[in-house]
């Protein structure tokens, strides 16, 4: 993974000291809260319902075991002993004291971590496929471009006061695990007609209260031009994005207002001015960064796939885990292992400090010290020998991180919701816990197969409900919490937004409604059709009927 | 309100002329884009310096062809949250080749100074009890950054490839 050199280190240290000064000015009263708010946000610090929340960047989801240990230390020392992994591959701490944040950030800096631009109207953490560099279907490891874009975006003097936040996601594989279609900019690696790898550039995707799938602004661009192209997109957005209404300020609104063709025309004209300037990435710089992402020296091993399957037949629990949590590795004899942070009844994405330490040890012992955070709020060990899988499974099972549910119904994305968040209308965590318990029966889970359920506690959609195969949105109706269901959302390469089923349901009715939806799917699916395909084939009506009954209850406006 | 140029508080030589005021025959003046466009011929015939103040919704393209006639361009920050003028500044410096005084006016405070300087501003109207302390603090905050821009000091990438930073002033 990337390691800081003296320049990176100096910059992060100086940012910590700058923030220390800003915090001191706030505490002394020299800075008003109005002035301080954007400053603290640009360093990831939110004021939530009960305390400050700090969001720490995990650049494109890559973590070392030493960094994970430091995250555990921070959880123990500055928080209440746990952290929460987010849909942008970051970690959040929910019980932070303002006056302690400078010291906390100084500690993170010692392991090359920071909270720069994890919030605010600026370019946020660049996210990527959590299997980057290890996926069998990958064209190129996208992390080198992620790191180049990270450096370009951090403390960028021109783009630190954008109209609104700005999120970039990158995938190096045709199968999109990074949800690039619902980002302000999505980069998708593919080959052009001449067989050269480059990026398709999507722009104006996003969730929130106006969900939009990103549109292709450029079908293919050479990677060496990616920074100048991003700069052109950002500059047009900075100049023309709306600033009169924060709900209309994201780039998706501008792209929709102008139309993608007009937006493209502006960006291409701007890009023509800068494409061969200082932002063109020289091969030496690509090589310098790329060196950090070279594959480790793998041992020559035999493929043990058949042997493992045989063990799985004897030990069905291990077999279920192999099927859902273990993914093929680019190198023979190795495997990618997902650690589920979605044990039944647990809070999705939460991890205690003790388990973080244990996971760091397991990463050292079984995965060359490397970890990933996935945007579905799970962890990944990317370099596990197949002959270690059974031992690792036992170790993970002992700490409750071997739930065999990756990509299945109980692998639920949930935002923090009204339990923590100042914006929320409803509690998302209890709903996720209820549904998780509902699918605790592993047999049913496996029978249902791939199904994403995403829960957001308000229309800001941090829980990605628009792109869940089943989406659940918490709304406030006359002071009471209700939950609206959507069906058919997806964030992969065939991204789609979910359709609303009908009026909101009280919390107590949600698990049963989900069960009826899932049972109907099992009843009407054809062959090995997944839930999404069945929905796309059968349409809303049969599902609406099982949720609300055959009458017209489902037609009433919520 | 103090005008700071080169880390020094200076008396503003420009008289700011409101749109309903008559432009005096002599003396340096700072006028709005509308006033400059309405009076361009008269202004050109004066021998004293001219500055144009652009609001944050006025793109510098409007003056790009006439920059040789201007000694000052002032860009307004109606609120520190409005970041359009950072882009305008870079366009003025790097694309339109403006070499005169580029002044930040409006809601200008310590925390923006570093970014403003890096996009090409060299004059700052700062509302502070101690504007020089603010400038000194902003100077101290960062010694290194990633982005190459029109600013005189090298970026991290340039330092990595062996470009020497200029000696301290």
Topology:
The complex is a heterodimer of chains A (558) and B (169).
Chain A: H1 6-27, H2 33-41, E1 45-47, E2 52-56, E3 62-64, H3 65-78, E4 82-85, E5 91-96, H4 101-110, E6 127-128, H5 143-153, E7 168-171, E8 185-191, E9 197-203, E10 215-221, H6 226-240, H7 251-258, H8 260-274, H9 283-290, H10 305-314, H11 316-325, E11 326-328, E12 334-339, E13 350-352, H12 353-366, E14 370-373, E15 379-385, H13 389-398, E16 413-414, H14 429-438, H15 442-448, E17 453-456, E18 470-477, E19 480-487, E20 499-500, E21 505-506, H16 510-524, H17 531-538, H18 541-548
Helix pairs in contact in A: 1-2, 1-4, 3-4, 3-12, 6-8, 7-8, 10-11, 14-16, 16-18
Chain B: E1 2-5, E2 8-10, E3 15-16, E4 29-32, H1 33-38, H2 40-45, E5 50-54, E6 72-77, H3 84-95, E7 101-106, H4 110-119, E8 123-126, H5 131-141, H6 156-160
Parallel strand pairs in B: 3-4, 4-5, 5-6, 6-7, 7-8
Antiparallel strand pairs in B: 1-2, 1-8
Helix pairs in contact in B: 4-5
Report on the architecture of this protein.
The complex is a heterodimer of chains A (558) and B (169). Chain A is of the alpha+beta class and 558 residues long. Chain A has 4 domains: 105 residues, Sulfite Reductase Hemoprotein, domain 2; 156 residues, Sulfite Reductase Hemoprotein, domain 1; 94 residues, Sulfite Reductase Hemoprotein, domain 2, CATH 3.90.480; 143 residues, 2-Layer Sandwich (Sulfite Reductase Hemoprotein, domain 1), CATH 3.30.413.10. In chain A, 37% of the residues lie in helices and 17% in strands. In chain A, the strands form 4 sheets. In chain A, strands 16, 17, 18, 19, 20 and 21 form a 6-stranded mixed sheet that branches. In chain A, strands 1-2-5-4-13 form a 5-stranded antiparallel sheet. In chain A, strand 1 and strand 2 form a beta hairpin. In chain A, helix 3 packs antiparallel against helix 4, helix 6 packs across helix 8 and helix 14 packs across helix 16. Chain A is globular. By secondary structure, chain B is α/β, with parallel strands linked by helices. Chain B has one domain: TIM Barrel, CATH 3.20.20. Chain B contains 6 helices and 8 strands, in the order E-E-E-E-H-H-E-E-H-E-H-E-H-H. An 8-stranded mixed sheet of chain B has the order 2-1-8-7-6-5-4-3. In chain B, helix 4 packs across helix 5. Chain B starts with a strand and ends in a 9-residue tail after the last helix. The mean pLDDT of chain B is 91. Classes of the chains: A alpha+beta (558), B alpha/beta (169). The interface between A and B is large, with 37 and 34 residues.
